[in-house]
Design brief:
alpha+beta; Nucleoside Triphosphate Pyrophosphohydrolase; eight-stranded mixed β-sheet; 3 helices
Length: about 140
């Protein structure tokens, strides 16, 4: 099944999903998060965990579908757990050094449903996802 943006509970309840975000620096040298704009707020890119594949392998494939990046420069910063409407979803947080792309927008593939947002704009999403513990990526 192709990657999806995780929002609805029905998808989570029937299958095991993993989600991610990628942090890159913008033109002002501030980190921005990879998200999808929803009617109310944002969501994180997600994909179903396929048989005989790890969650990490599936999320890396999803990232390659939506971003122009060298995955070998993708650094796993944190793996945390999010609870989305009573369903546990692993959330992989990556940092990408985008020195060769001055604008994060250059990393998005054409006709992407994703965008880059600063942390203050996605506060409600972070609350809705009930991220466990004190996520270190919020301190970046």
């Amino acid at each position: 099944m192709a990657g999806r943006i995780l929002r609805g509970v029905n998808l989570i309840a029937k299958n095991h999903y993993v989600a991610c975000t990628v942090l890159v620096k913008d033109e002002e040298d501030r980190y921005v998060f990879l998200v999808k704009k929803e009617v109310e707020g944002f969501s994180f890119p997600a994909t179903e965990v396929l048989p005989k594949k790890t969650g990490l392998a599936c999320i890396i494939e999803r990232i390659k579908e939506v971003l122009h990046i060298d995955v070998e420069k993708l650094e796993l910063n944190e793996l945390t757990n999010a609870v989305v409407q009573n369903h546990s979803v692993p959330l992989f947080v990556f940092i990408y050094d985008n020195e060769s792309h001055p604008s994060p927008q250059d990393l998005l593939k054409d006709n992407s449903e994703l965008s880059w947002e600063h942390s203050e704009k996605i506060t409600k999403t972070l609350e809705d996802w009930e991220i466990s513990g004190v996520p270190q990526f919020l301190l970046i």
